[in-house]
Amino acid sequence: MKKIAYFRGNMNSQGGASSLVMLIMALFFGSLLMLAVKLGPIYLDDMTIRGTLEDLDGTDGIAGMQPREIRKLINKRLIVNNIRDFDGKSMKIKKDGDLAQIFVDYQVGVGIISNIDAVVHFEYSYELTDK
Questions:
Q1: How far apart are CA 103 and CA 126, in angstroms?
Q2: Half-sphere exposure of 7 (CA within 13 A, CB side)
Q3: Whole-number Å distance between alpha carbons of 52 and 104
Q4: Do 53 and 104 touch, CB atoms closer than 8 A?
Q5: pLDDT tens, 15-64?
Q6: Sheet order of strands, 116-129 included
Q7: DSSP assignment of 2-21, as one string?
Q8: Which helix (H) or strand (E) holds 51?
Q9: Using CA atoms, how far apart are residues 47 and 41, in angstroms rounded to an integer?
Q10: Which site among 14, 18, 106, 116 is 20 to 30 Å from 7 CA-CA?
Q11: Virtual torsion, Cα 37, 38, 39, 45, nearest 10 deg
């Protein structure tokens, strides 16, 4: 019979990750988690703002509204959706007959660590029509 040779090396040669590697991995993944916690709500608010503007398309009477009335309607819907940090002045509304064009351009800044900040910039436009 043939004997199978097993590796019977030194226990020191079979070590796992060192504590330094584990510390670096914990710092890296902790930093990623912190960024997600800080920037996640900004992107969730932006998704709500975009959804609010998309839901305006086909609203009854939008063609007869003045830009200030459209702005007021948007601000009411954003307050209902708990978006309170959005400045309505970052929206430009143009009317052209039955078509209303909304241009949104804003940025949000958040502190990351000490004097390190992140600024996220959003810019998009929508065309709204009556039903």
A1: 7
A2: 5
A3: 12
A4: yes
A5: 677 889 899 999 999 999 999 999 999 999 999 999 998 888 877 888 78
A6: 91-96, 99-113, 116-129
A7: PPPPPP---GGGG----HHH
A8: helix 19-56
A9: 10
A10: 18
A11: 90
Strands 91-96 vs 116-129: parallel, antiparallel or unpaired: unpaired
Report residue 32 as tokens.
Answer: 């990623």
> Can you read off the two tokens belonging to residue 129?
């029509």
Name the CA radius of gyration of the chain, rounded.
27
Q: Where are the domains of the chain?
A: 41-129
pTM over 0.90: no
Q: Extract the tokens encoding 68.
A: 């200030």
* 43: Cβ contacts below 8 Å, ≥ 6 apart: 120
Phi, psi (5° rounding) for residue 5? -90, 125
Report d(CA 112, CA 27) in Å as an integer: 15
At which residue do the structure tokens 């400045």 appear?
87
